[in-house]
Amino acid sequence: MSDISMAPPSRLHAIVQTVQRRAFSSAADAALSVIVFGALAWLAWALIDWAVLRAVWTEENVSQCGKDTGAGACWAVIDARHRLILFGLYPFDQHWRSTLACVAIIATVILSCLPLMWSARRLSTLWMAGFATYYLLMEGSLLGLPQVTTDGWGGLSLTLFLFSSVVLLGMPMGLGLALMRRSEMPVVRGFAVLLIDFIRSLPLLTTLFTAAVVIPIILPSWLEGDKIWRVIIAFALFFACYQAEVFRGGFQAIPKGQFEAGKALGLSYWHILGRIVLPQVFRHALPSTINMVVVTFKETAIVIIIGFFDVMASAKAAFGTGEWAPYYLEVYVFVAAIYWIFIFSLGQYGEYLKGRMAISER
Amino acid sequence: MATAAELRMRVKRRKFAIQTLLVGLSMLVVVGAVTTARTNLEAQGLTSGFAFLDRGTGWDYSFSLIPKDISDPYAQTLFVGFLNTLFVGFIAIFLTTLFGFLIGTARDASNLALKTAATIYVQVFRNIPLILQLVFLYAVLINLPGPRQAMAVADSVFLSNRGLMIPGVNVTPGVALVLLCLSLAFGVAVIWRKLPPLQGFAIWVGGSLAVCLLAGLFLRPEGEAIVSVPALQGLRFRGGITIPIELLGMIVAITLYGSAYIAEVVRGGLAQVPKGLTEAGQALGLTKTAIWSRIKLPMALRSIIPPLGNQWIFMMKATTIGVAIGFSDLFYIVSISITQSGQTLELIAILMGAFLLVNGGLAVFTNWLNARMKLKAH
Questions:
Q1: Helix residue spans in chain A (DSSP H)
Q2: A185–B18 C-beta distance less than 8 A
Q3: CA B288 to CA B283: how far, in whole Å?
Q4: Which of A292, A359, B205, B223 counts the most CB atoms within 10 A of its CB?
């Protein structure tokens, strides 16, 4: 009896067992695992070898770059051109403003992930404050700094500007459309359904392109506005139409009895909405809303086609000069990594939240 | 004190007023837009209307399925763009659905290695903007070696900066288009017959391939082989099918991106199949493949198809990014036509109409598919 250990199996033992069960349960299973893991390991090694071990890091060593020297990634191009990629053609000595402005937007996004901020009032205050900080810093004239108009903005900071203004404008528009869609008045409801379905079956590019080229024709010139604002409003409309569907899902989760109870108590429509229904709708819609925000960030990349100098356009410009032309791969990898880090971390957070809410509702 | 009837009347009147206001405002905007457009266009000396469709374009573009010429009228050029959009869209839909199901199944697999590989794939390709992937891929393709130093696989598939050359059935492009349509019709018939998913797919692919080979056997040019294999002759390739890099970039980029999304849809569907069903299959001694194809897949399809239809529509809409690399899809043709002819409003209307038509059609098809897949008793 004494040789039976009563101690729990060690952590290592458990891991070994799991791997055995999940990857080596039979001969065929084992063969598959070895091949796939082998291929993954080879890929990872090739990537590390290229991107880290054999890479050239600084601009001074650029002569070591190229195929002949056996060097890997030439990060010298990033060292030399990262300011162009991040800030576009913004005046060089004012780049600290762009940096701070980008930090403000990123901080806004991170802060809105904290449960502490999850009330409509706090979230909207936070986003308006973040956006205002961005705009004041970038534009500058109100803070007594040299003025830089939106034409001078570019790179990652322009991408973040488009993203934050689309979300900030689109969110209330989306809520409005969702409310119109569930209105008791047939004309109002029909209008919302028509608009939402119309925008949703068109490619985003078509909507943005229409805003860029058609609006100047059909609106009088005093209403025309800047091209960037026209595109932002069209983009916000696109966001709103999708977000309205997200809110609709949230509304459907609220039992009808809650409206009726509110009405029976003699509360007004707006009172029922603001105090009883919307707080729950926001909660239900939160994971899908995060997903929508992530998708929007990804979709902003498309504005390069309409002719904006966003992070992709500035990346193209970064290897556009003769000496850096061979290193397009490094520049694209750099930009892809920026997008990936943003989108992946927000997406993972959305997944985590979804899982947590699923538990609390069980 | 107002009586209940009076209150009800007041609410009714208010609702009427709001709706009238909305209609009035919409009409005001439309009328205002039309009059402004008219004055603006007159100021630019443009005549509105669709007469320009009969004029020759006078400019060239990259890719066409049917013979093209720079003197083609606008109507035909736009039709070519529409065909290209449909062509890329349907190829992308087919490939993304195929790979999406494979990768989604791997995401759900019991084997840890498969699962890890599929997860890495999904996380890498889903989290980078499609247009960035496309431009990236195009930059790589255009920097490939020329035809003489083309990368070759088994001396029959070649990849160079001119495109991908693959062996193909030796028929004229017109016959190929007819075969493609036949294959689509056959696919619909397979769904109509409600065959089990995996079996139906195998019958569809097998049948389509057989018909293609038969067509090659009887319709090939006199004295040539059934399958034409590309071969380097001097500076360029002859024979086979050439996929130009713009088309190749579009197909590969949309497929890589879309597969990751569809894989997530498929994984979600498979995860919703109750565990008891798979365990029942195991208890009956079914193999893993049989459990997957006879139990999990048919059950999962019911929850997969509605979001899958949304992904298909997304794929169609995604073809518009072809303009970033100069692929002549409908959006590209429309935007060039606008700069060349100045008929902005008409061309935008055509663009919107085409997408409403295609995406509406896809939505109808998805609904039909969904209805076919429903359990009888429900």
A1: 11-23, 27-48, 76-87, 95-111, 120-139, 155-181, 186-200, 204-213, 215-218, 221-224, 227-252, 256-264, 269-271, 278-299, 303-306, 311-318, 328-360
A2: yes
A3: 12
A4: A292
A193 touching chain B per CB within 8 A: no
Give the residue carrying structure tokens 């049989």: B290
Q: Write the pLDDT tens digit of every residue in A16-29.
A: 888 887 778 788 88
The Cα–Cα gap between A157 and A212 comes to: 21
B320, A203: Cβ pair inside 8 Å?
yes
Task: Determine contact: A198 vs chain B, CB below 8 A.
Answer: yes
Min Cα–Cα distance to chain A from B156, Å: 26
Collect all residues of chain A within an 8 Å Cβ-Cβ radius of residue B38: none
Closest by Cα among B71, B74, B121 to B96 = B121
Residues of B in contact with A19 (CB under 8 A): 112
**A chain contacts of residue B318, beta-carbon cutoff 8 Å:** 203
User: Rounded to whole angstroms, how far apart are CA atoms B76 and A154?
Assistant: 39
Helices (H), B127-172: 130-142
pLDDT digits (tens, 9 = 90+) for A135-178: 888 888 888 788 888 788 888 888 999 999 999 999 999 999 99
Burial class (CB in 10 A: 0-12, 13-18, 19+), B185: exposed
Q: How buried is residue B371: exposed, middle or buried, by Cβ count under 10 Å (0-12/13-18/19+)?
A: exposed
**Of B30, B128, B340, which to mutate for an interface test with A (greatest number of A Cβ within 10 Å)?**
B128
- A171, with CB counted inside 10 A (0-12, 13-18, 19+), is buried
Q: For this complex, say whether ipTM is above 0.85.
A: yes
Query: pTM value?
Result: 0.88
Q: Which residues of B touch A17 (CB under 8 A)?
A: none
Selecting from B23, B123, B136 the residue whose C-beta is nearest the C-beta of A187 gives: B23
Closest CA to B278 of B102, B112, B110: B110
Contact B355 A203 (CB under 8 A): yes
Give bridge partners of residue B157 from the DSSP assignment.
Answer: B153
Strands B227-228 and B231-233: unpaired
